[in-house]
Each structure stands twice: as structure tokens, then as C-alpha cells.
Specification:
An 8-stranded antiparallel barrel has the order 1-2-3-4-5-8-9-10. It has a two-stranded antiparallel ribbon with strand order 6-7. A two-stranded antiparallel sheet has the order 11-12. It has a single domain, classed as Porin, CATH 2.40.160. By secondary structure, it is mainly β. It contains 1 helix and 12 strands, in the order αββββββββββββ.
Length: 221
């Protein structure tokens, strides 16, 4: 074992787990609130694990993603084929004993569901809590993340999906230091079923003897 590689201190490990659990709890609460909103619906939730290549070797990202269907903003299909959704990501960046947070939210285009595989492309403004990792400068705290994902469904109901994801993080040239970070990894995503709103449905039930009667039922269309 190479003794030059220092072990991660226990305090840093506890902080990392606390940060991850905090983000997961925050996103789960957000999902519960969004699911009840008439303007937005949580379409899918996913877990991401990615590793940097080319530069920043050893930098890893672990995150939770939410795919939001904004029902108030629906583009005509002849304008944009496929589907456009809002993709939110929150997680951690880690390089040895250093830990930082990453948060991004932006539009994502996905191919039509009838295709055997799903292709997704997205771009999102991104905030990083740390501007340096392992002594290398990232170029500030504000960045942009562009990604390409290709995946396939693991079940007949097309709920569980495994994706291969490649992303690039850079500040877009707004700062002089702009090395950029290229990462690749996997994402496991679960897609929720379509919600059907419960409505008060009128059902007439005529009594055979009196010839009158009225009934109301709470059902889903």
C-alpha cells in the first residue's frame, strides 16, 4: 500500500455523509411538495456516480437528480420533437480528503419514449462550493454543466432506467482560469407513473321502485 496517499480523516468522512444525507432529505421533501403542485410534477428521481478523466484525476461526483415536468410550460411537439424537462442535480464532489457541494438546474431534452433507448442532452447553470480541488484551480464557483446521456429501461413497465452519462463542467470563459472538468459514469433513474387527478364524478343511480336517485363518487379518470 502506498503510504504517500493519506487516509481520509474520520471527521471529513462524517461531514461527507452528513452533506449527502442532507441533500437527499432536501430533495425528497422537494419531491413530495412538487408532486402535489398543479404546475409541476416530479417525473423521475435518480442516483449518479461519476469520475473525472483527462484532468482532475481522482475527482468523483455523487449526486441525486430530479426530473421535473413543468406542466405550465409545454412546448408544441412540432417545435421540439421529444420531451423537454427541467433537470435538477445536488450532490458532492470529492478528491481524497477534500469535499465540496455541487448544485445545478437546467433544461434537458429527451428522445421520444417509443424509442428502444433514451438519449438526453442538457445544459444547466452550476454552483460549486469549492473553487479548487487537489490544488488545481477550477475557475470560480459559478459554472455551466453540459451533459449527454444514453440509457435503456430495465423493466417492461419502463420505470427503471440505467444510463451512461458524460458531462463537462466549465465557467464558459467568464474567468481567465477555465480548465474544465470532464466526467463520465452511470445514473440509475426511476420514473414515476403518470398522475391522474381525482375529480368529483357524477353518477346517476335510478331506483327502480321510485324512479329517482342521485349518487356522487370520487374517482380518477
Amino acid at each position: 500500500m502506498d503510504e504517500s496517499i493519506e487516509r481520509i480523516p474520520p471527521s471529513v468522512r462524517w461531514q461527507a455523509w452528513a452533506l449527502r444525507l442532507g441533500f437527499i432529505g432536501l430533495l425528497m421533501l422537494s419531491a413530495a411538495a412538487q408532486a402535489q403542485s398543479p404546475l409541476a410534477r416530479v417525473e423521475a428521481i435518480g442516483l449518479q456516480g461519476q469520475t473525472a478523466f483527462k484532468h482532475f484525476d481522482g475527482l468523483q461526483q455523487q449526486a441525486v437528480s430530479l426530473k421535473l415536468d413543468l406542466q405550465a410550460i409545454e412546448l408544441p411537439r412540432h417545435w421540439v420533437p421529444g420531451r423537454v424537462r427541467l433537470n435538477a442535480v445536488a450532490g458532492t464532489l470529492r478528491a481524497r480528503e477534500q469535499q465540496g457541494a455541487i448544485v445545478s438546474i437546467g433544461p434537458e431534452w429527451s428522445s421520444a419514449r417509443r424509442w428502444p433507448i433514451e438519449i438526453a442532452i442538457g445544459l444547466a447553470p452550476t454552483w460549486l462550493s469549492e473553487s479548487q480541488f487537489a490544488g488545481d484551480e477550477l475557475g470560480g464557483h459559478f459554472h455551466f454543466t453540459s451533459h449527454l446521456a444514453v440509457g435503456g429501461y430495465l423493466d417492461d413497465a419502463r420505470r427503471l432506467e440505467l444510463r451512461y452519462r458524460v458531462q463537462h463542467i466549465s465557467n464558459g470563459g467568464i474567468r481567465r482560469d477555465n480548465p474544465g472538468v470532464d466526467m463520465a459514469g452511470a445514473e440509475l433513474r426511476y420514473r414515476f407513473g403518470l398522475r391522474r387527478p381525482a375529480v368529483l364524478r357524477h353518477v346517476a343511480a335510478v331506483d327502480r321502485r321510485s324512479g329517482t336517485g342521485l349518487d356522487f363518487q370520487l374517482g380518477a379518470f
